[in-house]
Design goal:
Length: 280
Amino acid sequence: MTDQPMNDGGLVAYGIDTTRPSVARVYDYALGGKDNYESDRALYRQIMKIAPETPEWARENRRWLSTVITWLAEEAGVRRFIDAGSGLPTAENTHQIAQKVNAACSVVYVDNDPSVVAHGRALLLDNDRTQFAAADLTKPEEVLADPAVAGLLAAGEPVALVMALMLHHIADYEETREITRKYAEALPPGSFLAITHACNPGDGGPLDQLVTELVEKVKHAFPTLAFRSVEEISSLFGGLEILSPGVVRLAEWHVPGVRIDEPPLTGARDAIYGGVARKA
Ligand SMILES: C[S@@+](CC[C@H](N)C(=O)[O-])C[C@H]1O[C@@H](n2cnc3c(N)ncnc32)[C@H](O)[C@@H]1O
């Protein structure tokens, strides 16, 4: 692909606008990926001036995702995964992590970014236990009616719904809560909801100042971006039981029941929080 939309059925056919930054492609660039364009890289350079820890946040988030998916497949016995707001394919994707533990794991990816839809579908062509749903996650009824999602849920077996670095792209907090409540309600008993989310402690301290400046700087490109407090993030689990260690900085999170002595946390890791909840 080139940086310019092609008129002959190339990028334009996918609805990909390379002239404006996309969340998925800026994140891809932060992770060292190649599926991005000058508009994405220009915004990333602005972000880096304010938050040089951005690539560390992205890598930490992918590490967390890998730990959680592995634990869910290996210890919790989950065989069905929905990766909601999956992003562009990267080094280790959810189906590769889960199927490494058990080849019988099925994964449905959901995203509405045209770049992700195009690349995701291409990646999954050769994996018959993996599907892609092009859908807007702010519309739970439509997502839940998608044949791939509905098919995964229909068996009534536990499903892990993963919403990593996705919910902070919905501006309205009450709407975000209502969305996750609807997804939680649709999950069969024994299912899991795993969330990571950008956090603003709201205490006027250095992290508060940094993320406030960041949100202001990118608002022309990502107007719905909303960093939230730990309490607000914790209330996004649809009333499900949040497993130990709770909603914590990603570096503090560990597999339930296993205590890990972590080295002292760096400030750079403070901005992303995550947790895993289970439906009784
Ligand atoms: C920062 S990326 C995170 C990718 C991946 N979940 C991870 O944590 O590595 C956020 C993704 O959420 C997707 N996304 C944001 N809002 C969405 C929506 N309303 N419906 C579907 N996907 C959405 C974006 O397109 C993007 O691919």
